[in-house]
Amino acid sequence: MSETARVSLTLNGEPRTVEIGAGRTLLDTLRWELDLTGTKECCAAGECGACTVYLDGEAVNSCLVLAAEADGREVTTIEGLGSGGRLSRLQEAFLETGAIQCGFCIPGMVVAADALLRETPRPTLDEVLQGLSGNLCRCGGYTRICAAVLRAAGAADVTG
Amino acid sequence: MHGFAFVAPTAQAEVTGLLEEHGSEARLLAGGTDLVVGLRTGAIRPRVVVDLKRVAELRPGLSDAGGRLAISATTPLSRVVRDGRVRQWFPALAEAAATVGSIQIRNRATLAGNICNASPAADTVPALLVYGAEVVIAGRAGERRLPLDRFLLGPRRTALGRDELVTSIELARPGAGTFAAFGRLTRRRGVDLATISVCCSVDAAGVTRFAFGAVAPTPFLVADESGVLADPDADPETKDRVLAELTGLARPISDVRGSREYRQAMLMVVSRRLLRSVVDGRGKG
Ligand SMILES: Cc1cc2nc3c(=O)[nH]c(=O)nc-3n(C[C@H](O)[C@H](O)[C@H](O)COP(=O)(O)OP(=O)(O)OC[C@H]3O[C@@H](n4cnc5c(N)ncnc54)[C@H](O)[C@@H]3O)c2cc1C
Fold first, then answer.
1. Which pLDDT band holds residue B184 (cuts at 50, 70, 90)?
2. Does B128 contact ligand 1 (Cβ within 6 A)?
3. What ipTM was estimated for this complex?
4. What top-level class would CATH report for the domain A4-80?
């Protein structure tokens, strides 16, 4: 048995293969081996959501996934959300609403919100709060973050 | 993280073989929401990590036969929460599973991992106890079953032998007229471990069961068979006396989430509240 693993995954639609230590997390591998630094490392314990990515279509904390577990799977990061170099509707809504302060939590917020909207296309504010309860914003910008998600879902502006 | 080998076997026999060979040097990986945290902090230093998610026999899923629901060991909690049979037959389990962490956590965390981690505060355990869950265990010698209360031995301690793993958790569908609810107290709304957790059920015969979490080395089950608690017209003081006797069996500790005294006092409050909602729900039928 070896302490390195060969991992082949589909990353934002492209096949990629890396050789990494079996102890490396998916988060480390994305940032350090695959040069996708949009996904952030913050608490590294599943509490803050800054490292949220899609794994086989489900939002997960990439700090709690070993890269070896992603072998043969599909991973989509914040870099994979727009299309043809254009931001997604949700990303646009974050900009339009002024939901971004320091910005560090935003990639994770956007992926978590994207997952929420896929499951619940027209969420209530309460559903947004629930859906984003795994994502912390140290700037405390929750009001506008929630407004951005509701705006992307076509709701009226609630920021006042 | 320190070095370890990662293996992802596709057959259950390979898993038990690896466990037999490596013993406590091997650790099983389900959703990893407890294990990877432990690997990261160095609290656990296995030589081999064995991923269960590619094992054919353990494929994620819930299946029912003969009035029993089996939840396989790799089924993530988000799937348990969504399952129609869980929601209809075991609503308090759906409620409890829905409180675990965040959606990102529930998309990975498994029910089997929650019980095998054997935390006194494991949120799904009180509901599983109230519903009389059975743990299906496989080892080199074959399969055995244990009621959950005999599976959990203490904080971080289970009845699993060196070469054993949990393959599924089984629940018998409760008889008609059983009502149950789950409640917990946390320091903040959102992602937090329980300061205390309570599951309460009342069956058609008027037996009231409570399971209390985070107030003893393992969550535990108690019952009132007198019918007093289930009786909507019983005198509140008599009810409180019975409740105080049951909650008095708790042995809470003081920690960052609350003092012993606070836990003991709140156990009574949360239990009273839950009992009322279960008895009311039963009244409405
Ligand atoms: C941010 C965060 C929030 C959390 N919030 C909660 C919460 O609110 N409530 C709560 O109860 N828990 C919570 N947890 C803890 C954790 O998510 C749960 O205990 C979860 O159910 C563990 O399941 P898992 O599949 O991730 O287990 P893993 O981490 O994969 O495994 C846990 C342990 O069980 C063993 N194991 C796993 N599967 C088996 C098996 N089939 N047979 C034998 N042994 C096995 C592993 O070897 C390991 O020792 C939280 C964790 C995090 C990181």
1. very high
2. no
3. 0.96
4. alpha beta
